[in-house]
Amino acid sequence: MHEIELKAHLEHPEKTEALLSRIADFSLRCVKTDRYWTLGEKTVRVRRELIGTKETVLVTHKQKHYTDMIETNRELEFELAAASVPVFTEMLESLGMTCTAEKQKETKVFVPRASLFSADILKDTRSVSAELSFIHPIGHFLEIEVLYPDEGSDSAAFERHIRNAQTIFNTLLAALEVPRSAIEIRPYNELLAR
Known about the structure:
Elements: E1 2-9, H1 13-23, E2 24-39, E3 42-51, E4 54-67, E5 70-80, H2 85-94, E6 98-112, E7 127-136, E8 139-148, H3 155-175, E9 183-184, H4 188-192
Antiparallel strand pairs: 1-5, 1-8, 1-9, 2-3, 2-6, 3-4, 4-5, 6-7, 7-8
């Protein structure tokens, strides 16, 4: 899978949520606690995700690519048993990695209604989501994520996915009255390092 995402700062999160609830269906609420482990230019995120009473631990490394203000990630990810986190943390430290940032993210996930988009725009998409998040300590954000299957070396498919995701982003930003000036291209771990 690869993920194409856009995030934006929210000045009026309540207004954005009211607008979003008109064009999307509420899916779930979750709390994500992330620790970023870094060695040179490489970063591994260890995420504890709590949905209701179910906790999941995910270890992720993102191979990032930027096109204008759009971030495309190929995610290498696996689930880790919660009991194994201390040993895994010790392993990261023994490899020379250091914890460079931590964040807690309280998120409401919505699924935009397919009727917002033409069928050709949604071709090949695995999912589209809009997340409203409060991230301690940096504020409120909207994240729009579009998931596609890995296209391998098919650059035509990759370019089509970028174009379609851009249309999805533009549609949702307009519907939610979020200005393009609110778009944030820096990853959260950089924002937290300020």
